[in-house]
Specification:
seven-stranded mixed beta sheet, single chain, 0% helix, mainly beta
């Protein structure tokens, strides 16, 4: 069992910033990619940003240049720094991990989600 606990969401004005954090805990052998997805009302969940174990990052085109994903491997934590926020960034943000279990099986885990609302 792995638990992902997100924090840092909230209400912010357009142009503002927020920093999301996600801590992974539990029993796992190795975490490969950690990332953030988001889902707005009436829309499909989409990848926002991800970072591999080696530090390679990937971003959705809509957030490039505004969001930065990082991770602290020692703390099994992934961060999402969001700057220049826009109303269209409003969504529930979910943490995601791609990990190897102690049984040798690959797993994908999800956090419970944190609401980000960008509004004046």
């Amino acid at each position: 069992q792995v638990q992902l606990v997100e924090s840092g969401g909230g209400l912010v004005q357009p142009g503002g910033s927020l920093r999301l954090s996600c801590v992974a805990s539990g029993s796992f052998f190795k975490i490969y990619t950690m990332g953030w997805y988001r889902q707005a009302p009436g829309k499909q969940r989409e990848l926002v940003a991800s970072i591999t174990r080696g530090g390679t990052t990937n971003y959705a085109d809509s957030v490039k240049g505004r969001f930065t994903v990082s991770r602290d491997g020692a703390k099994y934590t992934v961060y999402l720094q969001m700057n220049s926020l826009r109303p269209e960034d409003t969504a529930v943000y979910y943490c995601n991990t791609d990990r190897l279990g102690a049984d040798g099986t690959r797993y994908a885990d999800w956090g419970q989600g944190t609401q980000v609302t960008v509004s004046s």
